[in-house]
Design brief:
- The protein has 251 residues and is of the alpha/beta class.
- The protein folds into two domains: 161 residues, P-loop containing nucleotide triphosphate hydrolases (Rossmann fold); 79 residues, no CATH class.
- It contains ten helices and ten strands.
- Strands 6-7-8-3-9-10 form a six-stranded mixed beta sheet, with helices on both faces. The chain has a four-stranded antiparallel beta sheet with strand order 2-1-4-5, with helices on one face.
- Strand 1 and strand 2 form a beta hairpin.
- Helix 6 runs parallel beside helix 7.
């Protein structure tokens, strides 16, 4: 589904990502792990169009999408969340989720000014779908709540619901459990599993190794911008270099 081939990104004299090649299979959860500075978020930003690669290919469903803008990629079925919350705090929870569907809506200026029946019907359908996604994400009780009133853990799940509103084929999650307590982490883990079972492929960057090992089909390990190793959770857990560098000798 997603084939990253010899991907490189250089910032001045710093090689943030160096000849990284990864294949993400459809219908799987593929984790990318590594210490701070390993290049994980840079890799995500390259895949999702935030950065333009210095060299290499990003093949998505057979098309080289390297250098495409985030909105072009979203239109092709790629969605993401960010390490730091990107929530509109002056909007309601359901309005935040509805913004994820904007590429699928036909809101012309004239139609908006006249409030044409077709536009009103489209808005109702969008709101209904957003409500369904919020219930799916376990935050349905907050439909009309202001985003500014919600807890950090709820906002994390709300952001996933918004990403799903774009109806992605693949969803990239950048540290979805960061800053969460154990109970909230368990809720995020359950939600990610539900999303995968619904047919959406997932690429996951996460430091919580318990969550990564529980969820992932395949794990790629980055070290100083290079791919150190790749394999199943059991294979990665048993790799001496990974044990020493990332998981700790007691894991």
């Amino acid at each position: 589904m997603l084939h990253i081939e010899n991907l490189c990104k250089t910032f001045g004299g710093v090689n943030a990502v160096q000849n990284v090649s990864i294949r993400i299979k459809a219908g799987t959860i593929h984790a990318v792990i590594g210490p701070n500075g390993a290049g994980k978020t840079t890799l995500f930003n390259l895949i999702t169009g935030v950065y333009v690669p210095t060299s290499g290919k990003i093949m998505f469903n057979g098309e080289n999408v390297a250098g495409m803008s985030p909105d072009q990629l979203a239109g092709r079925g790629m969605s993401r969340t960010f390490q730091n919350l990107q929530i509109c705090m002056n909007m309601s929870a359901i309005e935040n989720v509805m913004t994820g569907a904007h590429l699928r809506l036909n809101h012309g200026l004239l139609a908006g000014m006249l409030r044409l029946p077709s536009l009103c019907a489209q808005d109702r359908l969008c709101r209904d779908e957003a409500a369904q996604l919020m219930h799916f994400a376990g935050v349905g009780q907050y439909l009309t709540s202001s985003a500014s009133q919600l807890s950090y853990g709820v906002l994390k799940r709300l952001e996933i619901a918004r990403a799903l509103a774009a109806r992605p084929a693949i969803l990239l999650l950048d540290e979805p459990a960061a800053g969460l307590n154990p109970s909230e982490t368990g809720e995020i883990e359950e939600l990610i599993s539900k999303v995968a079972k619904s047919g959406v492929s997932i690429v996951l960057v996460e430091h919580d190794m318990k969550l990564v090992m529980n969820l992932s089909d395949t794990i790629s390990v980055l070290d100083y911008g290079k791919k150190l190793t790749e394999g199943s959770p059991a294979e990665v857990r048993a790799n001496p270099d990974v044990i020493a560098a990332y998981l700790g000798a007691s894991t």
